[in-house]
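User: Reviewer 2 asked us to show a designed sequence for the structure in our supplementary figure. I'm pasting the structure tokens here. Could you produce the per-position amino acids so we can include them in the response letter?
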């Protein structure tokens, strides 16, 4: 792996220079930036994915939507459509993407959820359709410099913080680490429980950020939810994932279950043939206490098929997750201070 990264580093340098000058064109106002007129929060990262944006957007939305009329704007990655779309219960993941469908599944009509690859157009459409909407949460828009949120939260994975990563294609970074300076606060995600103060201090030094602006979050796993045959007290799991980084989930499940993992690429669009292959794989299990488990985002894509008879014949479950933020009182005070500022 080290040799491959060494070979790719010249390409990373070229990529980094291009993104650096692009950012400078926006910084100097040579390329125009649309500043959102109302309150807006961008949740993003420097890497290509897998830092946990979706549950953090959900955390923010749950916290704020009861206080202020809120919308979520996403690109709708992986969808087969284009342009601006409002997300509803009638949509499929192929129409709007798995993440927006997850938000709709979670919040329903209490939050306006929209997709648009052009974030400026998407934000303007939301403002036109919902004149009383006061807050837009931008999902994964940190590199979308054509639009500027009033407040930015930058996420980074505890196991691979951006300070330890390299630029594409040698690593996972979309731009130089200096891009972090566009963020107001930072969250280190997927942290182990009971982080020591020394670990937090070392992370702040590694990231070169103000410790007062740095927060730490961990994943909270809820009980499995069934969308197939029920199995009591499962012990063996055939895990099916199509997310960027399933390592934390695999590690957590392995503490309690025997896990066999079928890994697909991020935002994978499952086919009927692949579902049949998953069932065939499960049929080779000789355990009466086995289930098929997937993530909640994958469930959004799997349920598109409407093959109730196939799913009902097998013990399909999905794993809901939420996040917990260390020192959440200070975090919420920081967010409230921005949202309540006129």
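Assistant: Here is a per-position design you can include in the supplement:
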């Amino acid at each position: 792996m080290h040799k491959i990264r060494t070979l790719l580093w010249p390409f990373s340098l070229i990529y980094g220079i291009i993104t650096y000058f692009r950012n400078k064109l926006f910084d100097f106002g040579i390329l125009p930036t649309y500043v959102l007129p109302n309150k807006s929060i961008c949740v993003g990262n420097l890497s290509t994915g897998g830092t946990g944006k979706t549950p953090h957007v959900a955390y923010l939305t749950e916290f704020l939507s009861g206080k202020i009329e809120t919308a979520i704007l996403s690109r709708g990655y992986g969808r087969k459509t284009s342009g601006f779309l409002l997300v509803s219960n009638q949509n499929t993941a192929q129409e709007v993407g798995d993440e927006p469908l997850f938000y709709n599944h979670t919040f329903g009509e209490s939050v306006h959820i929209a997709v648009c690859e052009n974030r400026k157009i998407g934000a303007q459409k939301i403002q036109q359709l919902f004149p009383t909407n006061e807050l837009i949460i931008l999902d994964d828009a940190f590199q979308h410099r054509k639009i500027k949120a009033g407040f930015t939260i930058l996420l980074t994975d505890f196991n691979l913080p951006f300070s330890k990563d390299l630029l594409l294609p040698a690593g996972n970074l979309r731009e130089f680490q200096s891009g972090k300076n566009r963020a107001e606060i930072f969250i280190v995600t997927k942290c182990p429980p009971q982080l020591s103060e020394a670990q937090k201090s070392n992370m702040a030094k590694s990231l070169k950020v103000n410790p007062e602006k740095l927060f730490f979050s961990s994943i909270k796993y809820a009980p499995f939810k069934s969308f197939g045959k029920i199995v009591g007290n499962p012990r063996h799991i055939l895990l099916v994932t199509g997310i960027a980084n399933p390592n934390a989930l695999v590690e957590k499940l392995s503490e309690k279950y025997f896990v066999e993992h079928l890994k697909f690429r991020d935002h994978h669009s499952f086919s009927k043939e692949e579902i049949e292959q998953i069932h065939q794989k499960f049929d080779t299990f000789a355990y009466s206490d086995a289930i098929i488990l997937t993530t909640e985002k994958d469930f959004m894509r799997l349920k598109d098929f409407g093959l109730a008879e196939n799913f009902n014949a097998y013990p399909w479950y999905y794993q809901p997750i939420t996040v917990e933020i260390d020192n959440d009182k200070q975090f919420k005070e920081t967010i409230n201070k921005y949202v309540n500022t006129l």
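For the response letter, you might also mention the following. Residues 2-27 form the longest helix (26 residues). Residues 225-319 form one domain.
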